[in-house]
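Hi support team,

I submitted a single chain yesterday and got back a structure, but I'm not sure I'm reading the token output correctly. Could someone confirm the output below corresponds to the sequence I sent? I've pasted both exactly as they appear in my results page.

Thanks,
R.
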Amino acid sequence: MASRLLTFGAFGLAAMLLAPRAADAFEGRPAADKTPVCDDLDDAPTDAFGFTDGSGISDLGHGSLGLTLGGNAGVREGRSLNRNGTLQGSYGLMPCFEISASVFGGTTRSTIARERLKDRSHGVGLEAKYRLLSHRDHGVGLAIGLEGGFERNDDRATGPFSSYNTAFKLLADRIIVPGTLYGAVNLSHNLIWNGPEPYRRSSTSAFGAALAWQVRDGVYLSGEVRHLRQQNSLGLGSHAGHATFVGPGIYWQATEALAVSVAWNVQVAGHERGRDRPLDLMNFSRHLVQLDIGWTF
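Hi R., thanks for writing in. Yes, this is the structure output for that exact sequence:
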């Protein structure tokens, strides 16, 4: 029941964000020497919503470099701690079109049924995003994204294996109260192939909705709800489990070029197929933490 209420509430927020908006909501926008090609002057920062992303992208001829440090913990039986890091560079290659490249790695240490397990991974990724709508012209920001990645895993229990993934993303945001309150909605579907051959196919679908409140210039407090579903196939069938997460976040624009954000999510509802338990701690962790450090140029 809690999962359904949270999901319905998130869809309600999505409907509010995507509703038409009057043009006078953008009065009072500060003047700029140069109008951005695709970005809007009064957008909320992309990372101001926690794990949820805004629709903003790098403007033509500009770029950004970001370091993301993350961790998750909490399993059904025993203990597990994952630590990971991603270094990503993005650049506005064409008007309203951004391309990003990343390298990442992580370690997982677990104790399950008194057996100690260790897994190390590293990989590379490539992502492209295109902004279809902007607040300035349409009252709502909307971007689509395509991401692909390769990951090499070294698992003490099963040995080394490779993973490939392709993710499709839809990112929307809206200015609810100009200069004060912003909202964002994300939809994604990630296709995963795990080796060794024959590759096991799975997928993860995600829906997220978040609000960000600018409490002072350059400082945002956020709250979000995200619903994730795991499938043992590339499509939406063969359901393996689902989980609903909620949590707060904070974003600080330290300088004109440097920004720092922290977000925390906790699983509050879920279900694992084949088990009569209130949470899904087989496919998802109980706690998720993320630290982002971004620099724009």
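A quick pointer for reading it: The chain has one domain: 2-27+54-296. Let us know if anything else looks off.

Best,
Support desk
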